[in-house]
Amino acid sequence: MSTHHPADDLLLSLAAGSLDRASAIVVSAHLESCTHCCQQLELLEAVGGELLADIEPVDMEIGAFSRTLERLDQPVSVAVAQVPVVRPDLPAGMHWPRSLDGCDITPWKRLGPGMRWSRITVPGDPQANAFLLRMAAGMELAAHTHGGRELTQVLYGAFDDGRDVWRAGDLDDADGEVHHRPVVTAESECICLVALTGGRTRFDGFVARALGAWMGI
Ligand SMILES: [Zn+2]
User: Fold this and answer.
1) How far is the CA of 15 from the centre of ligand 1 (A)?
2) Do 142 and 201 form a contact (C-beta atoms < 8 A)?
3) From the CA of 37, how far away is ligand 1's center (Å)?
């Protein structure tokens, strides 16, 4: 059961289809494992419908929530059905979020000892900046803040960035107000799905900064 959830604005823009594709993949991955947020989204849409009904007695958009769920069930449409999908390995028992269906996911690339990443390409959206980060137990990511918005869904394991512990199922929403140094907890390795929008990661150190620039994050 996750304890960190996307804010209402993210849920609503996902439902409205106005969220950028990279962020939508991350928030959708969260919804797949969070009944709380599915219910919250339903509630928000009901409230939104009431408000609309009060001010505008015209045809309302009904069924947005069910359409959102339908969208979550549908892989991103792209003509890859016949091509066998090769994806990087995962720890035993971990499954790919359905929101990544149709995306191209590179093999794990080594960033350093105990640290690997994989670039995610979203079909039809070359600007989408999404990736997976896989770090061994106890590893820490260089301290950084954000030029834009960083959405992180923990898919496996957990990390502690001083603000709190983020476990599998949790979503972190960080921007330029947040300066953190995520450290993977001791129990196991950690895999996160990350989307960046509105600006790059701003690492403190020169080496991390150079590595980040090379990764395009
Ligand atoms: Zn949630």
Assistant:
1) 14
2) no
3) 4
